[in-house]
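Bug #77: duplicate submission created two jobs. Keeping one. Sequence:
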Amino acid sequence: MNDTPAITITGLTKRFGDLVAVDNLDLHVPAGQILALLGPNGAGKSTTTEAVIGLTPVETGRIEVFGSAPVAAVRRGDTGAMLQNGTLLAETSVRNLLRLMHGLHVHPLPLDEVIERAELGPILRSGVGKLSGGQAQRVRFALAIMGDPRLLILDEPTVGMDVDARRRFWNTMDDLADGGRTIMFATHYLEEADAFADRIVVMNAGRIVADGTGAEIKSIVGGRHIRFTGPDRDWSDLPGVVSAVRENGGWVLNCADSDAALRALVGHDEVRDIDITSPSLEDAFIELVA
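Kept job's structure:
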């Protein structure tokens, strides 16, 4: 990382009629950081990312990308974006589309490198309008990295990809991140955010409700969870237990001290099938946006 912030957002507010999509948002992203932007539908993620790349005009607040206005950063080649519903030119081949767009950039990556990173070799002759959802996403990814940007903005980048394609995609992103690029991505695949991001920001109703590492976000829901089968009673009175919830015919204890809770629990003859797990990012996410 260097001293120049990749993204600085101050007091961003965006309304669509009576709907407040983003509500007085402040966000500082250091250069070189990998940030995952999470939130339910309507949380303001897409509006925020579109404002960072200059597609959505800023009415209230300020955004800077490497010290410049968003549109200036795009024109300079500092920003690349992969939007979930970005429209592609349907009446051409993948090869011709790549050649056309390659000639528009200030300092593009070699075209062969773009094709290799996006795994487009087998579909270069295919018509863009005939691509599957996953193939179209790979083309969008190629267009996003083609200009060799310092900042990559990715909105639901692996939608439409199968499990193996998603794994290969994130391996490629690891390689790009190792080169010092800043990456901000929005995703509904929480395991991707937990595995790949240096930092996770959770949005809800246009505001940031949590900001930290994956471990810090997961700590919001307490310590370990103890799952077991047992009779109906108030298990929350056990030592070390924060809450007890009925789930799928059994019980889940959210524990501040799982060792104390487990010692008390094993003294009950009617308890069986005990399983201890750490809280997941999904657990924290659900609690944050409930």
